[in-house]
Amino acid sequence: MNYLDTTIALAASDIEYYRTNGHVKLSQVCDAAHIGEFREQVNASVEERKRNIALLPFDQRDTYGKAFLQIMNLWVENPALAKWVLSKRFASVAAQLMGVDHVRIYHDQALFKEPHGGITPWHQDQHYWPLVTDNCITMWMPLMDITTAMGTLNFASGTSSVGYLGDMPISDDSEAYLSNMCKERGFDIVNHGDMSAGDATFHSGWCLHGAPGNQTDTLREVMTIIWYEDNTRVIEKPDPKNRWNKSRENDLATWLPGCKPGELAASPINPKVL
Ligand SMILES: O=C(O)CCC(=O)C(=O)O
What we know:
The protein is α+β, with helices and mostly antiparallel strands. The chain has a single domain (3-255), classed as q2cbj1_9rhob like domain (Jelly Rolls, Sandwich), CATH 2.60.120. 28% of the residues lie in helices and 19% in strands. The protein has a 6-stranded antiparallel sheet. Strands 4-9-6-7 form a 4-stranded antiparallel sheet. The longest helix is centred in the first third of the chain and has 19 residues, at 32-50. It is globular and about 50 Å long. The two termini are 17 Å apart. Residues 67-68, 111, 113, 120, 125, 138, 140, 151, 209, 211, 222, 224 line the site of 2-oxoglutaric acid.
């Protein structure tokens, strides 16, 4: 059987850890024999896209711009990479952690933290996603062996049930507000430590997280994939709970093209992969 069609049966303890804390680290979600090919395809797509990006000199960027090179939805332009992003292997892990049978792709993104790149401010991913479900998850997979000094993620354990905390895009403001909230509410901050290529952390859409800067001379190559539970709807408009923001408007147009408020979140670029 093709490696990417093989599924992983998770230990009950890993599932429980994820559901309690909102994040978990799993070893060798992509094994050593295969990670090189995944890395090669991600890098080919990143190099292609970078040709059309005018990067500001580092000292002229804002905090978000210093955090990482963020290159999104690579799979749509690279059929060889699409096999990885849309694979049953990775999706099977996401589905088991969330406890659902079927998942759709939201988008992928390469997050390359440059040598001596800045911090990733504390934030909530789902602040960006106009989806009516708590079942959203990100896989964060280094494509190379990485140490904590390169910027592995910090998670605030137990925050996956906090829900929408307001319009707080990744910024100095989100860093200040959410790091303070973690202190005040006494959330445990967990960093899963050094990771081998192909290990992965998974975190839920609401789980507060960030990362220290890259203190090394080496580019931190990480690929991420986001899934959500099938049959999820886009938030209604107007929303009685006032959960729309500019980022969600932009995400609706970009990552759910053609989907309207209240409709099923299922555009042609959100294939059901499991
Ligand atoms: O890679 C990073 O530094 C941040 C990653 C992140 O925020 C995410 O994958 O949701």
